């Protein structure tokens, strides 16, 4: 079964280039190309893609509003942002719509392909250059963290807590993590609380974002 993709970008050359490359992948099917956010929403209604590859700065309706509307009407459809904007004023609102990830257009083609495949499986995708920026902004009420934890902070976690943290990057609930690790849901809740305390984080979203950054290989 192929992954059905809807591409949304107002730059025709960029759109055609991405479409041509992705259509060469044996497990991808390009089901539509939208030139603005409104078209992306309407085409999602009609075509029911698995993933919408969404630009942000588009006419008629921007990608953030389009992502929000798609999440409301089609929660089963995953939105993967692909844009040139790496600042928190774009990244944070986009992720808060429920987007599965946020990639920059400078990403290598092969990395984009793998990000799409991983997003299809439900895994959060973040371009490594913006992980730290997002992490510092996503605390409740807009308050920044006192300090983003370093990769060395992982040493504070037990082996089981590391397993739970990795599961958080997939957006799983405590119940789903408990099923995946074959432990009690109450145990998972305890581990999540311990992880947040040890890493100086305030919520699961921050933990997931930190994990995506921390588990990424150093180039």
UniProtKB/TrEMBL annotation:
Pfam families: GerE, Response_reg. Coiled coil: none annotated. It comes from the Bacteria. Residues 4-120 form the Response regulatory domain. The modification 4-aspartylphosphate is found at residue 55. Gene3D superfamilies: 3.40.50.2300. CDD domains: LuxR_C_like, REC_NarL-like. Keywords: DNA-binding, Phosphoprotein, Transcription, Transcription regulation. Residues 150-215 form the HTH luxR-type domain. Transmembrane segments: none annotated. InterPro entries: CheY-like_superfamily, NreC/VraR/RcsB-like_REC, Sig_transdc_resp-reg_C-effctor, Sig_transdc_resp-reg_receiver, Tscrpt_reg_LuxR_C, WalR-like. PANTHER family: TWO-COMPONENT RESPONSE REGULATOR (PTHR43214). This is Response regulator. It comes from Cohnella cellulosilytica. The lineage of its organism: Bacteria, Bacillati, Bacillota, Bacilli, Bacillales.
